[in-house]
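---------- Forwarded message ----------

FYI, see the Meiosis inhibitor protein 1 record below. Original note from H. follows.
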Amino acid sequence: MAVREAVAGLPGPGRDEEAALLFEKAHYRHDSRWLLPVPPRLCLACALELLPEAGVSLVRKKHVLSCFRDALMRHASLVMQLVAQDQRVCIHFISMLFGLLRNVEDGSVTDLCIEVLIQLTTQLKSEQTVHYLLDECHKELCNMPSMRGSLATLTLLGKLVDAIPALADKLVMEHGDLMGHLLRGLVYPNEGVQASVCYLYGKLYSSPVAAEMLWGHFREKLCPLFLSTMDGAQTKELQINCLGLLRQLLKYDLFVSMIMNKSALAESTGSVEGPPGETSLPLVLKKLLLSRDETLQVASAHCITAVLVHSPAKHAPAFIHADIPEFLFEHLSSSSEVLVWSSYNCLILLAEEPLFFSKCHTVYGIESVVRSLQGSLRMNNTDLHKQGLLLFAEILTRQPEEIKLFTSSAMCRDAGRALQEAVSSPVLEVAAEAVKATSAFLRKDHQSALPVLYKELQALLEAMLSRCADLSQIPLNWRPLGHASSRDSEKAILGRGKFLLSTLEGFRNACRLAVEFQSEPSAQENPFTAPNAEKEDTLEAFSEFLLSACDSLCIPMVLRYSEQATHPALMEVFLSILHSLFVIVPHMKEKFSKKLAASSFIQLTLELKARFCSGLSHSALNQVCSSFLYYMCINLLSAPEKTGLPSQEELSAVSELLQHGLPQINSRSPESLAFLLDRQYVEGAARQRQYCILLLFYLAYIHGDRFVSEAELFVAVQSFLLSLQDQGEHPPLVVFRASIYLLAICQDKGGALPEAVVGAIRKFLEGFPDLHLIYTHHPLLLRLFLLYPELMSRFGHRVLELWFSWEESSYEELEDAPSAGQPTLPASLAALFHVLRSSPSILLILLDLIYSSPVDIARKVLIILRTFLRRNEDVQVGGLIRGHFLLILQRLLVEHGASPSGASGNLPLLLSLLSLVQLRNESEQELDSMAMKLLHQVSKLCGKCSPTDTDILQPSFNFLYWSLHQTTPGSQKRAAAVLLSSMTLMELLEKMLALTWVKAGSPGTALLCSAWLLTASCSAQQHDGSLQVHQTLSVELDQVLKALSFPKKKTALLSAAILRFLRTALQQSFSSALVALVPSEAQPQPAPEDTVLAPLRASQVLSLVIGLQNLLVQKDPLLSYACVGCLEALLDYLHARSPDVALHVASQPWNRFLLFTLLDAGENSFLRPEILRLMTLFMRFWSSSILSCEEVGHVLHGAALADLSTLSNSTLQALRGFFLQVQSMGLLADHSMAQTLQASLEGLSPRASMAPPPLQDMLCLGGVAVSLSHIRD
């Protein structure tokens, strides 16, 4: 009643719906506990009575079942409570549902029944219910005369086992006779029944236990029947279920072998009469691959993969013979990622079988693979990218060399570009697979299609290296607190190492490719390039790229990674790359080796050997390290920077030494040093190891890699040399060169060498034919030889000669440097100067070098000696140098007396140095016997030269001139006497003076200047001292006056020299016993006034004065001094002969114009000494037309106002002379002016009397020795 009332209370539509769920004629009897409390308001009791009722329509039954299924899905717990109230009711409900399933033919109703039964069974979790249902199904199949109505039962069993997998074992064990009924269903001509059977079989074989129990059933009955059924399946349902069963069977190796054996038997009998129904699995799957259904294609590919996984070598041939690869390659162009991925998997497994390649499937399919890669890389499926690249790598790796994979360069280009895109992928796993594929791609047989596209290969390698570099620069993960997560860091480092290793393997293959193509003329460059076109895509350019890429990318990446971890395999590949680059770019191998040595690669390789190659471990790495060190050492020794080229015999000996010794060196640096220190008897093999160790240290040190303690190495090398001496051995040349160099480099840290070691070194050195064989250019090596007298006395000359010959700089900048602000010396020179200061006797060796060495070397020595003497004025070496030079000069004159100019091209350099030494002497110093001997020898040398021997004469004249002026008056007379005694010198000077007027064949202006100055000096000394004259010099007076009246351009110094000569002649009133001034041609009858002035004529005097005025206007300081001095001497000469003429000359109007032109040079220009002397001169020959009293007063007034403390000594002297001249002439009527003058005189007299000599009287102007006092005073 309660149920009826509840239903009656519902609104209309809801009431109709609920009523449809209730069986009205029986519902009133049902207890309310069978009514579901939530919508749909289903009554279980009504359902039990309604569903089997024949009078109820099938539609209503279907509605009830549908509502019950929905309730079961929405409110499973409530429904289960309802059903589980009574076990009998539950069993009855299931029985009723099974009966409905069995009797109803409507497919939708049976599907609902099966779904409800499965849900009830699984939700109830009651074994009794399950057993009951299995029993009912068993009875139904056993009692069924035909399989026609078995579809629903078979479907129910299949889905029941699927829902409860444990039922598979129970069904096989407890209902084993069902297998026979399943076989009946499999042959029944209804694909729906067959599909259900296959589905049930698939669920049974999914259980390993059931599969094992059913093995015999499959072998004896099911296998051929199943293959036949799958082969003949037409409906997709049957095909899918057959493939599902096959997938389950293919999990077990036993079943795979059985199926494939059956298939092989079927294929073997395919061409003859065989049993009907025999089917081959590869052919069946091939047919499914050919279907247009993507699902079947994917499933078929999965099945092929499942077979091959068990044993590719065993099962792949069957699929290859069935041409399965051809269709898999075709499927790579599909737009379905699943199908492409499945095809990749199959092909990867098939690629493990050589038959896959020998049948040329890869040649057929490589284009499809490349196109598929290009397409897949545009998708976001990284798994697809990885599988495609893995397949490509497998094909590239396993492809036989004799079968060309890429038949055209275009295909090769497309493959390279696909790989280039892949290696640039941001996904590390994809990039890693791409790098492996790239490594396999860089094989000669893959790149043999002409033309070889080197530019494309270069772009691929650049992308690969760039990706690796990007990865290496990503910082490791860090925890927030700043502590590195060790596990994550180690994992990241390991991942980077693997990627770097793959990248290096690819780069190594590229290097191997370049080496192999070197022997292929057709691969050197693009043969299709136009004749005149620029050839860029060449092997040479590719090789240079490899070297550059290794230098800029590979080496930094490996070194950066080695700071975190070191893996032997990675370093083995890396060093093999470096080794191959020596062969790839042979013209750069020396330069590359030097850069590697300078970058500590010797140290790196030795540490690798010590760490990993002790004993027999990592023999491959040891071999690679030794080979790399060998070739790098040979390259370094073949093209040394700081030593001579070795001979072929020396290289052969070193090569043999390194080949035998390097593989045996597996010790760290301290152990190697201890090995060198061992003074006990050393056997041959151990001695070779010592040689190799020393060579490695030498090459490392010479390129700046000092990874061994210098102090310890210094001691070790000494011990090594003493050990050789003790055993009476003589070291190989290159080993001794290394030992000497290391001792020199380390001596600052090791102290002085013991006498025993120095003696051993000398003994070894004497065993070599020449020092250049063991010489290595370094200032410290030079110091080593010069520091120890035992070595310097025997080898000093040769080592200095070698040192200068190896110096690249000419040091001209030191020669041109001003005395103030001298530049810093190079380190090599600083070391040499330090040794020279400590041992000045070395200067004698340098003098010998200047004389005996080639001109370029001698020039260097001269500049260095000059620089040393200028910078070390406190070092007194003049006597030492002059004495040695005297010996050289005496030997030269004895050996080459007739023609000293041909004796040595370096003699001018020696004379130049002698002049410099003379210039360093203090003025007013007596000439000793050594100086006099030198003076005699140099004058004798000059007398044997011709005027054209400028290189010898110029420094010689400089020396003679300075010797005359840079000494005391007494020594000057002695020096002049020596010069005057040399008749050949006087003859030479006469020729030189005469050549002044000759245009052609005239010596240089500098030499002429020196000749005039030297002649003037000798004439003055002869006249003043009344010295004996052995040879008179004749000079044409007309030419002298003409040269001064009409001077040439740019000859100021020559004019000054001639003026000094004329001034001397005027001072001597042309009465010199040495110099005779003669007319150049016959003179006319002199006028009366000319007789007084003889040998001058009045016209010559006026012409000379005009010439002097013109020279003064040039305002050259030195020339001005000479002009004023000459004008003073001329007026004195004229005044002595004819005062009127002197007054006439001094009163010329042009003199006033000249004076004011000179005064126009700036403020206080009258305080210049030459102008003061000129005004004094005019005052002496009082001429108011030149300088008036008023103007004199202005000069005095300006002088009184000037700061006299700032004036030079020569200016003060000239000013004092002017004041005295004015005072003596009584020109000052003004009393105040007289007082001013008196005060000035009192202030100037002490300064003038105590005025110091000029700071630098001796100068070298344009290569000409000049004494300012000689020109000025």
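H. also flagged this: The longest strand covers residues 1033-1036.
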